[in-house]
Design goal:
By secondary structure, the protein is an alpha+beta fold. It has three helices and four strands, in the order βαββααβ. The chain has one domain: Alpha-Beta Plaits.
Length: 109
């Protein structure tokens, strides 16, 4: 697990919490990697952190410099196609939350 290297706040986070189905795991993993790569090329992208447990529950947090950047990512044509695939095949449920990060601190060295 790697921590995103974010700037000093304020910035924004899109938090995607999901429960996976058991469908098509190999395709899911390669597509998730592709979406991370594509997001990293979007204007305003700051980083991403993601984890999933053995029962399929996962949380992905992507960091952005503005609300506008998050909206542009949501509307990205390739991302929209993957969103539809996720709704149909990969997730039994999901929630997306958008928030402003006003303070951040860690014990990282």
């Amino acid at each position: 697990m790697f921590f995103a290297n974010t700037p000093e706040p304020p910035y924004y986070a899109a938090i995607f919490t999901s429960q996976r189905t058991e469908k098509d795991n190999k395709s899911y993993i390669s597509t998730a990697d592709l979406m991370d790569e594509l997001a990293s090329k979007q204007v305003g992208f700051l980083g991403v952190e993601s984890a999933r447990d053995q029962n399929g529950f996962g949380i992905t947090v992507s960091y952005w410099d503005s609300i506008e950047a998050i909206k542009l990512w949501k509307e990205n044509v390739s991302h929209k196609k993957v969103q539809e695939k996720g709704k149909q095949d990969w997730y039994s449920s999901y929630t997306t939350r958008i928030c402003k990060v006003e303070r951040a601190y860690s014990n990282s060295k």
